[in-house]
Write a structure and sequence with these properties.
Strand content: under 5%
Shape: globular
Order of helices and strands: HHHH
Distance between the termini: 42 Å
Radius of gyration: 17 Å
Number of helices: 4
Length: about 100
């Protein structure tokens, strides 16, 4: 295995380990409110940074099977917390087509 292949393999293993760890902690109920908040904030910042660099991709993989209800719960709470009205979101979406 060449060095780039090895580095990519390690990256994939690390990502898989992180995902498995989070799922395990969630199933065990071992994630505190603050940890969930910090994870969400970090994930949002990472995704937004990619998006702003025109590296645009769907926010979830097909394997994640996120439901519309889960999206609506989080989206509505994020809008509420950041004091963004639905009308403003609609304007933003039209400007960024």
């Amino acid at each position: 295995m060449s060095l780039p292949e090895s580095a990519e393999w390690e990256r994939l293993e690390r990502r898989k380990s992180l995902s498995c760890l989070l799922k395990e902690l969630q199933e065990q109920g071992d994630l505190s409110e603050r940890e969930v908040q910090d994870l969400l904030a970090t994930a949002i910042r990472v995704y937004a940074a990619h998006y702003e660099k025109d590296d645009r991709y769907p926010p979830f993989s097909p394997e994640s099977k996120i439901s519309a209800t889960e999206v609506m719960i989080l989206a509505s709470q994020m809008l509420k917390y950041t004091n963004v009205e639905l009308f403003e979101l609609g304007l933003w979406m039209n400007w960024n087509r």
